[in-house]
Design a protein that fits this description.
This protein has 397 residues and is an alpha/beta fold. It has 13 helices and 16 strands.
Length: 397
């Protein structure tokens, strides 16, 4: 708190020099015949290091050159020592073949941006085809179509869903004609076509299960006739997979696959998707047919039913918050498992990247790799084209 006289600095320097010399002498020791001292390891000492900083005897051994040695034979870091070694022992791979690219479509000449999903838009049919062809050059081979239907075409029973000249059948035919080797998935559900905004027919405030399934069977047959390779019932009605399978087989579409939305949760992560399709529920929520986010074991029940009813692929939606469910299904079924990297997950990453909080490329690829590590064979992701381009530029993650 006062002024220190000038001569004090000389005294302090003398004390420091003496202490440093004393420490250096005391700390010098011999291990396995090799001399070592703090001076040789740290030639630029700037102060007195107290004795407590020394490592207790017996904790470390010494190499023949006198360097510290931990007596541990297994060293996992040996398998991480170079990029070549890491590639050699890598447990999980990520390629464009794992991706399904969701495309939003509408019957309008111009595209429309989706404000809550940066980088995504509702495509006109010509633009949809151009986008699919552009993604194709980066290795994307699979697409799933989601239509934004005009309000005047919507009804409680969703009859537009099986109009053979509706937007989805026309879109399927366009893609299959231009890209015959592509895999086209089509969403089977009534919500884009429903005046009520629900996945099924509404009566007295309730969603009718079996009446809805009748409509879903018609929709699946319509899409199969248009050339859909895989129908994807996302409605979560009980028994719909078996009914759709029987309907397809009876009409000779035994080769059309079913990707079942097996564990689709009543999640808050779907908001941007519903903006894209203008398919927010007209009343209430979807908790009477979509799964409770609190339940994990319930997914086993749905998986067993879907597999027994003829599903070819089981899907979990959302993805990232439900990787535990992805892993559970991977451990319990021999069928391929898919996961949907949903709109809310995508938009959160985009928002953080736009603010400079995250490296979008690195985090997006890491996210997709985590889906694979958890057990997903297939990933529905809005990053499909961009991630495939990144992988082409730098295949070693």
């Amino acid at each position: 708190t006062g002024v220190i006289p000038d001569h004090s600095s000389t005294k302090m320097l003398g004390l420091f020099t003496a202490a440093s010399s004393s420490f250096a002498g005391e700390a010098r020791f011999s291990a396995r015949g090799a001399a070592w001292s703090p001076r040789s390891a740290s030639p630029s000492l700037t102060g007195v290091i107290p004795d407590i900083a020394t490592v207790p005897e017996g904790v470390l051994s010494r190499t023949t050159s006198g360097r510290p040695l931990v007596d541990q034979r297994p060293r996992p870091r040996r398998n991480r020592k170079s990029a070549a070694v890491r590639r050699m022992v890598r447990e999980t791979s990520l390629t464009p073949a794992n991706f399904v690219y969701p495309l939003f479509i509408h019957d309008v000449a111009e595209n429309a941006e989706i404000a809550s999903m940066p980088g995504c838009e509702r495509h006109s049919l010509p633009s949809m085809l151009a986008e699919a062809q552009d993604a194709w050059q980066y290795g994307v081979r699979s697409f799933i179509l989601f239509p934004k239907v005009e309000d005047e075409l919507k009804s409680n029973r969703g009859e537009e869903s099986y109009n053979p000249e509706g937007i989805v059948p026309r879109a399927v035919r366009m893609i299959k004609e231009a890209l015959p080797e592509s895999i086209v998935f089509t969403d089977i559900a009534l919500d884009p076509y429903s005046s009520m905004g629900h996945d099924g027919i509404v009566e007295d405030g309730k969603i009718l299960n079996d009446d809805t399934i009748e409509q879903l069977c018609k929709q699946a047959l319509c899409h199969a006739r248009a050339g859909s390779d895989c129908v994807a019932p996302s409605d979560m009605m009980d028994g719909r997979v078996g009914a759709i399978r029987d309907a397809l087989d009876a009409e000779g579409f035994t080769d059309v696959s079913i990707l079942a939305y097996t564990a689709k949760y009543a999640s808050a992560y779907y908001g941007p998707f519903r903006d894209a399709l203008d398919s927010h529920p007209g009343f209430g929520d979807k908790k009477t047919y979509q799964q409770d986010p609190a339940n994990g074991r319930e997914a086993y029940i749905e998986a067993e039913l879907d597999e027994a009813e003829g599903a070819d692929i089981l899907l979990v939606k959302p993805g990232l918050p439900y990787l535990d469910v992805v892993h559970r299904l991977r451990q319990s079924t021999s069928l391929p498992v898919a996961a949907y990297h949903v709109s809310g997950e995508y938009s959160m990453l985009k928002a953080a990247a736009e603010r400079g909080w995250l490296d979008e490329r690195k985090v997006a690829l890491e996210t997709l790799l985590c889906f694979r590590r958890a057990g997903a064979d297939i990933i529905l992701t809005y990053y499909a084209k961009q991630a495939s381009k990144w992988l082409m530029e730098e295949p070693d993650l």
